Amino acid sequence: MNIRFATTSRAAIITANNDAGDQQAVAAIATVLEDVDSPVRLQAVAVREAAESFASTASSIITTYSIAARSTQLRTVAVRTLAGPTQRMIAAGQAEARAIAAAWTRLTSVPPADATTAGLRQHDRTEFTRLAIGDKAAWIEQGDVDQLGAVIEAGSARFSDVTAPIWDRLEERYAALNFIRMAGTAADFARKPTVDDPIATGVDMDAAERAAAKGLERHHERSEITEAVEQSVRGITTIVALTCELDMVSAFALITEKVPA
Question: Where are the chain's structural domains?
Fold first, then answer.
């Protein structure tokens, strides 16, 4: 068995191979985790340092102890070096995921209808239902925030011909328009007079939507961070499973049991 630790511009990588050489485990702790403005950053640094420590100590154990004796030693080292940092990174990832979900819920929530808007929303839903699927996609790109909200309020199950990608686009555009409404930024994008339209008034919605899209892009980047946390934890678990001769469930339990901070 052997275990190695290396760093690249993209990740810190631990690689382990079993004695027969027919099994390999790889864990990659993405460098991007250390570059984000999030509680995940500090925990990712700690996990990288812990992984390097585990690889170094495990390598010494592998060369010092017999095959029969080393698994117990490796399990002890895994708990001592990896458990605490891994648990704290999981907790930070969970907090980030909850914050992302809450932000998306706010952006895609539809205000309750009142006596006036209830009828308008029903009208918008009826019109949307009557459209062919291609026309629905075009309608999504042209509708205003209230029209899109009327459809979202009904839920995707009501529109059986709307595919998941089209519904996702509906939510994405509604979120962008709702972002503008909630942030009150529409006034920042007032149309400017031009030679062709010297008395231009109103809002340049294209510019406002582009700005909102950048805000949503940052939201999606946060989602990528939680995915990187998941991949890192799964990778560390595979390393522990192979080196400590455990199945994945037992390896995960070993490093997620509560230990002193």
Answer: 2-100+228-256, 108-221
